Each structure stands twice: as structure tokens, then as C-alpha cells.
Amino acid sequence: MESLLLCFLLALFLSVTTVFVLFSSSNKSKLPPGPPALPFVGNLFWLRRSFRFHHFEPLLRQYRARYGPIITLRIGSVPAIFISDRLLAHKALVEHGASFSDRPIPLPAARFLSSNQHVISAAAYGPFWRVLRRSLISDVLHPSRVRIYADGRRWVFDILSRDLRARSKSGDGVVDPKGSFQFAMFCLLVLMCFGEKLDEKSIREIETAQRNYLLHVGRLNSLVFFPEILSFFLRKSLKKARELRRRQKEVFDPLIRTRMEQRKYEKQGRERFVCSYIDTLLDIEPPENGGKKLSEDDVVALCSEFLNAGTDTTSTALQWIIAELVKNQGIQTKLAEEVDGVLGDREIREEDLQKMPYLKAVVMEGLRRHPPGHFVLPHSVSEDVKFEGYLIPKKAVINFTVADMAWDEKVWEEPIEFRPERFMTGGEGFGVDITGSREIKMMPFGAGRRICPGLGLAVLHLEYFVANLVREFEWRMVEGDEVDLSEKMEFTVVMKNPLRTRLVPRSKAVD
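-> C-alpha cells emitted (511 positions)
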């Protein structure tokens, strides 16, 4: 009996394998090239050693050298297309933007985070996504709205400055600014989201609920491989994710209700910021809801997305820029001289930033050399698309390698060097279009219809905080230390060994 069963299973496996091989052969000429895939497991055999971030990118570059700038990997049940050429990226995202603007079916973790794709970053390309994005851009991220929060940015920098000074005193002048940068950006995004200057304890409570939830659901992405089987074994993790989501909702709900009450009854004498993100969400009536407002779960998910998107990417970019200024003291000195030359002894006003071209060059070079994400969020196609002689099948996942484009030696001279002068007059990056609408030389915020809507806000925050941090402190190398620019993947691409720097208050800093 056992031998008969073994023969039956062997025959079944050979039959399925034969069908798979025949099917793959018939479609091989249509898909972009890539390494051979095995039945059921796809390219998992080839990728088994590259699940760590620092192994996966070099492997992709090896495949690019072998197969070209557009390759196919099979990870799970859906083909994943990787595009690493800037010209092809422009052709896909801008010239054929409508075809490449969908999002793939979300991974299990993303379904938790996105309230089943009811957030801007994960929503399918269509009316619901347009309503959410248009509301965010016109009511919160429009330049006239952003200016309203100038006082809030000053308030947050004061928090950051006090925190850095306290850490410096307790650490004999040596600080690791990563946590300070993250908390400062989170304070600012909480203010813009809920419209309130909350106390530190309340902000920490929100931050803890947010980060615990994000850290846990990020571990569920292994479900992309055989989700039906792994869901059984990960029942406790799924249950824990739901518990953490409930906890996050418990923290967010009082803030949402408070804002709802403020909209009904204006409280006299209470400081209030007009048009917070919550205000716009409470007014939205998505077309697919039949005139109904967003659900409570959707509002919580959208707030979570807003806080996460605006905090980690900006604080990560800020840390990389400061690390480069510590490593390159001459660049830091030149930047400090520009800031002092514009300001004299007074505080920075946001309009002053327009008079600081070297500051802008430093920020742009930071985003080019150290993009917070080495891949934009995955794109998808809602129908079969012919592209560069290949057929991109419906629901395929399309990935764009941001870092490779920013380090293209055909565009950038010595691309691994941190050289802000390349963005000054006469440099290869002068006048570069960071949106990628004309051409793509770098795309830290993506490009096309799905470009990050917070691009302008992120650049403003980086310029404002870099200028103030260099204005207020000298960022020196710690004796005996080297600045290690090795990378690792968390929510964003961060420093593998966090920056340690000796902080020295500048005598001209305005108290």
C-alpha cells in the first residue's frame, strides 16, 4: 500500500511538473527574462540566501548584468518584475502612467495596515484613491496649508534642540541622534494629523502604539509564500496583530472624537490649528460608500499611514545627511557659513531657505546618495500590458530600483561620493527634476501618478531642520570613531551602525 501511494505521489508530481514546464515554456518569450523557476516554489531556491536586504540587492544587480535592466523573479504565485533603468522607469511611470498606476493585491501585513486597501498608498487605482489623494494634497499638503504649520515646526525644533542638549550633557557631549530625530518628526506629524500640540507623554503613547503594531505586522509577510498553509501556523501572530490594532484604535479614538467635538463647538481661548488631516478625513464621502463617510477603521488606518509615511522617511533622510556632514567637515563648514551669511544673528524664517542654494544642494545630494527606500512601493497593472517587447501580465508586481537609478554612473560622476556641488550651477544635477516628470535621474519619492504626495513637505522639513541643526550645533567626529555608512533595512534603509557624534553648541545660536 505504501509503495502504491509513493508511486501515485511521484506520478502526480511529475504530471504537475510537466504541465508547469510546458506552461512556463509557452510564456517564457512573453515575460522579461530572469533566472529559472521551479514548480510551486518559483525562485525561492535561488533567493534562499538573499532574504536579507544586504544580500538581495547585490543579487538583483547580478541578474541585471546577466539578463538586462528588466527582469522577472517568481516570489510566491505572482511574477515580480524589476526595472532598474531610469529611461525604462520614465517610460513606464510617466509615459504609460495610467497602465502602471495600480497596486498589487496586498500582502497579509499590508492588508492589516491598509484596512484592506483603504489607504492612499495601497488603494487600487480608481475613484476611491483619487478622492483620498486629492483631499490630502489640496487640504493638507497644499503650500498655503503647509505654511500654517510654520509655528509648529519651530515648536518641534525647540523640542529637538532641548532633547539633543540634554543627551549631550548626559553623554559627555556624545549623542546618537536617531531617536531624537524620529520623535521630533513624529511630534510634527501628530500635530498636523490631529491639530493639537500634545504633551510628550501623550505623543509617546501614540508612538508606542503605532510602532508596536507596525513592527508586528511586518513579520506576517512570510504569508506571501503559501498563505493558506502558513496562516494555520501563524494563528497566534494574526491574533496578536488584531490586538495591537485594537490598542492603536483605543489611542487614536479619543483624539478623533475630540476633533469632532471641536468642529461642532469652537472652544474660545484654546490654541488650534486649522484644517488638520483628521478634519479632511471626517468630511470625505467616498463614491463607493453611497454617500456615507469613512468608517472608523478607515480613519484610523489613514491616520496611521500619514504618521508612518511622514516620520520614518524624513527622520531617516535627516540622519543620513547629518552623518555625511560629520564625515565631511568641509561641507558642514561651508553650509554653516551660508546659513550664518543669510541670517546674521536672527532666527531662521522659512522664507530664508530660498536664499540658501548650498543647503538645497546638501539635501538633494542626501536624497540621491541615501534614498530612504531603495525601492518605491510596488506597482501593478490591472490588465495585460505590452512593454519593451514583453508582455507584463495582469496583476504582476512591478518594482523600481530607486538606489540603482540614483547611482547610475552614466548620469552621476563618482556616484557613491557625497558631493553637494553636483547640484550647484554647472553640476550634473543642477536643475534636476525630482518629480521625474521630464526625465528621471533620481526618484526618491517615486514618479508618475503614484508619486509620494508629501514630496514638497518632506523637502521643506529636511531643509528647515538641517539648516537649524547646523545653525545651532557643530557636529563633530567622535575621537577614535569612523562614520560607518553601511546600511540595513528596517521600515526604511537606515544606518547599520547608528551615528555617534560629538555635539558642540555654536556660540551664535539663537536661544
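The chain is about 50% helix and 10% strand.
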